[in-house]
Amino acid sequence: MTIEEGIGAGAQGRAPRPPIEIPAAAWLALTLVFVAVCLVVARGPVAVGQTTLNGLIAAGYFSLGAVGLTLVFGTLRIINFAHGDLLTLGAYLTFGLNAMGAPFWPAAAVAIALTALIALSLDYVIWAPLRRARTSTLQAMLAAIGLAMVIRFTVQFFAGSQVRGVGQDVLSSINIGPLHLGSLQALVLVVGVVASTLVGLGLAFTRLGKQIRALSDNMALAEVAGIDTARAIRVVWIVAGGLAALAGILFAAAVGSVNPNFGFFTLLSLFTAAVLGGIGNAYGALVGGLVIGLAQEWSTLFVNPRWKPVVGFAILIVVLLVLPRGIFGGSRERS
Amino acid sequence: MTFLNLDFWIGVGVIAGIYGIFVLGLQLNVGFTGIINLGQAGFMAIGAYAMGMLVVDAGWPMALAFPAAVGVAVGAGLLVGLPTLRLRADYFGIVTIAFSEIVRYVLQNASFAGGNQGVIGYDAEWRAFQSWVSPHLKPLGLDRATQAPLLIAVWAMLFLCVCGLKALQASPWGRALRAIREDEDAAAALGKNVFAFKLQSLGLAAALAAIAGFFLALNVTYLYPSEFDLSFTFFGYAALLLGGFASYAGAALGAVVLCALTEGLRFLDLPLSSGQVGSLRMILVGLMLVGLSLYRPEGLLGNRSEMQLRA
Amino acid sequence: MNRRQSLLAAVAVATVALGWGPVRAEDGVTLTIGKLLELTGPLSENGPSQDKAITIAVDYANQAAAAAGVPIKVSAVSADAQGDPQAALSAARALVAKGASAIIGPSITPESIAIANGLTIQKRISLWPVGTSTRLRTIKDEGTIFRTVPPDSLQAYALAAAVVDKVGDPKGKLLSIAYRNEPYGEGLAKDLKAAWTAKGGTIQGPVVFDPAQATFDSEAQQVVDHNPDAYVVIDYPDTFAKFGASLVRTGNYDAAKLVVPDALAFSTVPGNIPPPALEGARGTRGGSDISTDAYKLFDQLWQKAGGVEHFALDANSFDSTTLVVLAAAAAHSTDPAALTAKIRDVAKPGAPKFGPTTLGEALKAAWSGKPIDYVGVAGAFEFADNGDPTISRFDIYEYKGGKLDVIKQIDAAK
Predict the structure, then answer these.
(1) Annotated domain spans of chain B
(2) In a mutagenesis test of the A interface, which of C40, C179, C217 is the best target, namely the one with the most A β-carbons within 10 Å?
């Protein structure tokens, strides 16, 4: 562009546009493909193919769990440490209903609805009062930690801390040439992608979605503009709670056995995925999960798998240092 | 009188003192600087392991290893803070969580730190000192209580730290810090290097964590990564919430009350299975946290005006 | 009720809740056993089964004592170690405050060492950990720590022998090792690797996996790659349920090539471990002349009590509890130090042997002051100076149809 155009743009309050704008997603895809090619050269296509598939599976778990987390974090600014335990709650409600005689998947559907309802009532009882009292991020965080303990140990009080088999078929697998993945794992992957995409599309194109986005930008302004923020917040909690329950149930089914700590143990990976992708961005949850999952599984090609957790955290720190708001966080200032 | 067992409560006192020192660092960061440091357990691990390894592997005397370890932790604090303090407050918090967990996993998996086998044997000098001190405690009736010397040492250190921090708070440095917490932009406009202050605050918190780690190491006599997990930090924040974010004395008090409550609940005797009693204990602690956040967010000693933290 | 009565009522409730209730009259010896359990925290999977193991041991001992006319009554109190050494130390103190004469149960060595150094050595209370780390033997415990779990060095030899039994001469054979990332696995893998390579074999791995992962597919792939002659997976049942599924899904896994140590030994395989993961697999566990009968009795007691399924090393906790009761009978006292002093007298080499099926007679003999050699479910102990069992007899078993079948016994010291 010419100097005149640049000055003109600046005078109008816009930043001058660079000649070619490559969106973050494209950069990411390029990087991943580049890394994959290097790996194939180093370790051979079958090993890389299998670990890539394993990484996608891990991404499925992370994405599904992280969408609800990122939604709540983005709109309500709550670091919801209790989110992981909503996964546990969903899974254990399913077990309970299953034990009472309902078949597994219908029980799961009911459990999802119940968890969404519980998440909503927790908003009435805890989060809304905290919002009204204008408490700080830290206070809300501590309330979340307390809530997480209450949920987890109430589940444990009734169900016991021992490991429980879920009873679904964890052995059936799908073979794609020399590669394989578990059937239930494939289900998790598909549901994870679909859920994140649906939420992302919903946020972008539905009226409710736009309201929620307005809410996350600036709640006071959204209210002044006449948006029914209370309703939008209710929807956020229902979606977050329902998706958390779904994530927990699928996780339990695909992994095969769980105990009441499993949601809390997964929480950190979910945070990592959400933050990596950019808080508040549903596609970010998907992409964040993808990056973490792939990074961790690819790392096993070079280092002992005992280092997998470290890889996840290291990637988080590196990405945040380069892209302080995550991959899709953009450069918009958030109030 | 099972509930009033002296040994038990001395042990609780030691734990409370350790948390007290740990929480002083959190109070400095959150209450007086406005940064959410969720990696305090990581700094504690670095301090404790540095001390342990210097004594066991390098043969240093504890009197040298301890200050050196604190130095190492401060260095870690500065290293962590340099690239990350420019992040938004909640992102910074999550990065510090990642740091804390990386420290823990590295200590578990790298052989230089003993890995799963941990570090042992660093407390020989302390034990000798302890057996020298114990008979002198006879006038207090504490000569048979194994942890009494440690209790005294921890609380003496806690008292020193509180006094030191209060003095620091009243100094120009402390006033600048407070200004930064109230309004970063205003403070910057007045020429204060906000970043440098935050970095110093983090370094100092890391030092306090290392001191707490030192006493933890002496208490459990065995260094193992799971001692330094996130739940330690969360518990510390719970203590901070309890004491109110307004003062160092409050932070220490919060630690004492929370530890006393949590440990005291061990004597809960109800016609439930062991597992259910264990779960109930945790449910009660969680309810207390939620209740405090809702009904008395300023804690026991705080006041509401101090609470606002813009994040 | 008026205010004063309500206040008194509240105080009364608090008093009872806090354990200040009236002391019951005692006759004979009334022993309190301290259960240090993992009720919450990262290791809480162990809690319920360990609780059950100690409880059925207490009940069985009470029954046997009553039937044999020995005036000893046993009860138990519990405290939560929370998977954290500092909390475990506090829990141990709570147990002592509640009157425990012995403490059964620290699951990990950091907990054991914290408790030993902070409490039990000074007060001469016997401590019975389930953890197997070699670190525990580096502290001077003055004869207060006892373990019914065989030391890694012996079990590693047993594992190697079990593999040799399957594949023949180790020379040139590839053994793939995997373990869950914690002290049990690490110690055992190290000794096994040394034992196997000393005999001329080669090792693949060890592949170390972190239990909190969502998928173990990459790790499982590394275990079965290059078609090793055998695999040894050192793991606990809760993780193995997940890891075993990953192994099977690789499509390249042969359960018959698997050998596992005692943490994965159960009379009946728990429901959440997929059957193809263990069918035909072999393993090692502590054994004795009476293994088969002893394990059968233990399993009967376990099934009758209902509740949780078998878990790792539950028989060992059962044995620890029984030994404490026998020692109390021998000491005629619940004083922790007196009890600790008598433990070796009830596991004395050369003395008349008794087992779980003859517990009543064992109690009688102990009560009358005769030394005995009690052989537990997990084998005989005859404790060494450092409190570890010296008996090196191991069962080698195979899983057939989901059930454990002992195929031979070996002496790992030979």
Answers:
(1) 13-227
(2) C217
Q: 10 Å Cβ neighbour count for A311?
A: 20
Contact residues for A275 (Cβ-Cβ < 8 A; gap 6+): A288, A316, A320, A326, B91, B94
Give Cβ neighbours of residue B138 (< 8 Å, ≥ 6 apart): none
Minimal-distance CA residue of chain C relative to B270:
C17
If you ran DSSP here, which 8-state letter would residue A171 be given? S
Cβ contacts (< 8 Å) between C308 and chain A: which residues?
Answer: 160, 162
B310: pLDDT strictly greater than 50? no
Task: Count other Cβ atoms within 10 Å, centred on residue B271.
Answer: 6
Q: Are the Cβ atoms of B283 and A142 closer than 8 angstroms? A: no
Q: Using a CB-CB distance cutoff of 8 angstroms, which residues of chain B are in contact with residue A267? A: none
With beta carbons under 8 A apart, name residues in chain C contacting B282: 40
* H or E element, residue A72: helix A45-76
Spell out which residues of chain C touch residue B266, defining contact as CB-CB under 8 Å. Answer: 79-80, 90-91, 94
Cα separation, C200 vs B35, whole angstroms: 58
- The pair phi, psi for residue B301, each rounded to 5°, is -115, 0
CATH 3.40.50.2300 correct for C28-151+310-380: yes
- How far apart CA C127 and CA C147 sit, in angstroms, is 8
**List of chains touching C (3+ CB pairs within 8 A):** A, B
User: What number is the average pLDDT over the span B118-128?
Assistant: 90
- Given CB atoms, is C86 within the 8 Å cutoff of chain B? yes
Given CB atoms, is A41 within the 8 Å cutoff of chain B?
no
- Residue C350: is it exposed, middle or buried by C-beta count within 10 angstroms (0-12/13-18/19+)? exposed
Q: How far apart are CA A286 and CA A276, in angstroms?
A: 10
The verdict on B283 touching A (C-beta cutoff 8 Å) is: yes
Closest partner CB to A142 (pick from B86, B98, B293): B293
- CATH superfamily of domain region C152-288+393-411: Response regulator (3.40.50.2300)
A247: left (phi over 0), alpha (psi -120 to 50) or beta: alpha
Question: pLDDT tens digits, residue range C19-77?
Answer: 443 333 345 899 999 999 999 988 898 899 999 999 999 999 999 999 999 999 999 99
State the Cα–Cα distance between residues C168 and C172, nearest whole angstrom: 11
* B3, B11, B231 member nearest C89 (Cβ): B11
Dihedral sign of CA atoms A108, A109, A114, A118 in order: positive
Q: Are C181 and B109 contacting, i.e. CB atoms less than 8 angstroms apart?
A: yes
Q: What is the pLDDT of residues A291-323, one digit of tens each?
A: 999 999 999 999 999 999 999 999 999 988 888
Angle at B195 between CA B188 and CA B106, to 5 degrees: 160
Candidate from C17, C86, C133 with C-beta closest to B15: C86
CA–CA separation, A309 and A304 (whole Å): 11
Whether residue C345 contacts residue C331, with contact meaning beta carbons closer than 8 Å, is answered with no
* Cα–Cα distance measured from residue A61 to residue A199, given in angstroms and rounded to the nearest whole number: 16
Owner of token pair 């969502």: C214
Do the first three CATH levels of C28-151+310-380 and C152-288+393-411 match, i.e. the same topology?
yes
User: Which 69-108 residues of chain B touch chain A by CB within 8 A?
Assistant: 83-84, 86-91, 93-95, 97-99, 101-102, 105-106
Structural domains for chain A: 59-321 (1.10.3470)
C99 touches chain B (CB under 8 A): yes
ipTM, two decimals:
0.92
pTM, rounded to two decimals = 0.90
Beta strand extents in C200-334 (DSSP E only): 202-209, 230-234, 258-260, 282-286
Which residue of A53, A163, A169 to mutate against C (max C Cβ within 10 Å)? Answer: A163
**Chain-chain contact of C96 with B278 (C-beta, under 8 angstroms):** no
